[in-house]
Fold this protein.
Amino acid sequence: MRARPPILALAPLVTIALFLVPIAAGLGGTLLPAFGWFPAIGGMHLSLRPWAMLFAYPGFATALRLTLAVGIGATLLSLGLAIGISALAQGRPRFHRLEQLLTPLLAAPHAAAAIGFAFLLAPSGWIVRLLSPWLTGWHEPPALVTIEDPLGLAFIAGLLLKEVPYLVLMIAGAAGQVPVAPSLAAARSMGYSRPVAWLKIVLPQVYPQIRLPVYAVLAFSLSVVEVGLVLGPSDPPTLPVLAARWFADYDLRLYFPAAAAASLQLVLVVLAIASWRLAERVVAGLGRLWIERGGRRGAARGAALIGAGLGGLALAAGLLSLAGMAVWSLAASWRFPEFLPAHWSFRNWARHADAVLPPAAATAAIAAAAALLALALALLCLENEQRRGRPAGNRALWLLYLPLLVPQIAFLFGAQVILVRLGLDGSFVATVWAHLLFVLPYVFLSLADPWRSLDPRFARIAAGLGAGPWRVFFRVKLPMLLRPLLTALAVGFAVSVGQYLPTVFAGAGRIATLTTEAVTLSGGGDRRIVGLYAFLQAVLPLLFYSGALLLPALIYRRRKGMA
Amino acid sequence: MRGLALAGVAIAIHGRSLVPPLDLEVAPSEVVTVMGASGAGKSTLLAYIGGFLDPVFTATGRIYVDGREVTRLAAERRGIGILFQDDLLFPHLSVGGNLAFGLAPHLRGRAARRRAIEAALAKAGLAGFAARDPATLSGGQRARVALLRTLLAEPRALLLDEPFAKLDTALRRDVRSFVFTHARERALPTLLVTHDAADAEAAGGRVVTLAGGA
């Protein structure tokens, strides 16, 4: 076998170094101040004082409880609803239409969905307007608190809007390797109702493959900051929001308890994932007993129906949230309780164009750079794997998921300290790199399956015709895989557009994107302006997705085999 | 009337007739074979009887099981068992687990269910196989387990969708006689779909030939 060119042989190493070194260094940079060591601001001795400061914070216990309730509650619910939808809908002929419907929700950043959801829930939002005045008797927006409730219910619901479609898609992808329709037919011919058959036959085969995405949802829901800022309670907030607030404070002494809170966040996530793993075993054991009891319908069918109903509601709320922002941004006058504005205009857009364009351009530039870099790295790694003739194992997959499992707040602060040392903080390069950490896993995962399942005989035939490996790469593999390539690019772009915390930290507050601006503005301010930012933030990735779908269709319009 | 009955069953696709109107009665213990070239609509006919017809097809006519009309019932309420070309043993369950999945739910209690499964396995010459991983079974063993699973669900009619097509010739004879013996023993009306004349001969019953929609 021919030796691999160095650019390929080094690709996995460079990729891993790009991941592991910054994460490890960042974690170290957060852990040391958590134990009092931060010479730059006078922390010269190791001590437990930061922890004492954290525990002494009056709302600490509540914040901790809230963090766990939101993180675990949102994960359990989104998994349950996604399972309900899949149990009811998968294996039906028109299931792919549902998948198409999910695209705008998948492309929209968490912050945009959260802001749109806050609009939807607000006393003057669509839900109240829909019920007023005929049911509620309200002619004025009521004085109700609908978001930022102390139990974090709006927070959890806001997370569901994004996590349910994501998990539905992950389940559908994993089910691609299971003969779903024939297995369901076999089970139904034995008397099983469709949802029970799906739960007993498809789910146990699919779950091992969606385990890592579920852990990623768990870690994210525990650690998310921007959704908490928009929808969560603020006094006290969840632990990661508290840490982010302290990190951003002018009082530098708050760095110490902030670092302690961020380190505790890491511990929470590790413990939560470990407990989830244990619970999986228990559930699997109970599930086997349940399967062998042979029940054909039972309560599970009702549970699946309820799950699917609530899941459908979450999807509808997500789509309405996105639509609502567009309507607000175009509303000239919109009296309560009218369902739609009486007058529409682009005046709002025109007036704020000067303010919106720079962050929009920055968002697009960072996202394009991060997505292209991620695509190049993923391609090199996959090509290396293929020429080496050995696929990366399970351990590599865990490594790839690492940035999605480690809480962002726990290493971004430490990483920022290092960036300051290198004089790179607040630069375009640093921001792109920080985004790359989160973009690369998604781009790689999106590309890996289609790349690996391309029939290897095409490459062999090309080689037999005298084409060298690079010629095969550029002239056979890339063109044949144009569609998944562009899809991976669009996924990467969308992930980058959605990044909040990495932009805030690596950008050192000097780089403003649509996401950071929208979250900042969401606190108060004019709904028309917030709607504009959040809408653009949601629409930018969607444009990319549409391009990823249209371009291959256009290029291969005379090639039916590529349709 | 006991058995499986079709009354004026016809299937069309995009307005083109695929299966012409068909009247057929299959008595308990009887095996009727439906023959036809591939694409003649044999499997589509079985899908309609079983309740799995793809909505691109339009079908008319009525289906009765033991005198009860099941045409509009969901697949799971028809009491019609099916064996497919693939055995579709569920890979996440043991052999015993697969059979427990099939075993009718009115038999309660883990011990009683386990005994029923052991007995079924023993009768099929597979004693002691309950804990085995289906992936370690031979093709013939898999086919037997698949039939046992279907029968343990206590169907009142049996559809066979070319279940022998993927077995090699030596095995085919064994599995065929295993399937027919078990079906007769339970007095099941059985409808077999095949394009292999040897299958029809082994079934030994009436043969209906579908000409195909051409």
In short: Chain B touches chain A at residues 50-52, 54-56, 74-77, 79-82, 84, 86, 88, 90-93, 96-97, 100-105, 107, 110, 113, 149-150, 153, 155, 159 (CB under 8 Å). Residues 4-79+155-209 of chain B form a domain with the Rossmann fold fold (CATH 3.40.50.300). The mean pLDDT of chain B is 92. The helical segments of chain B are 42-50, 95-102, 110-123, 139-152, 169-185, 197-203.
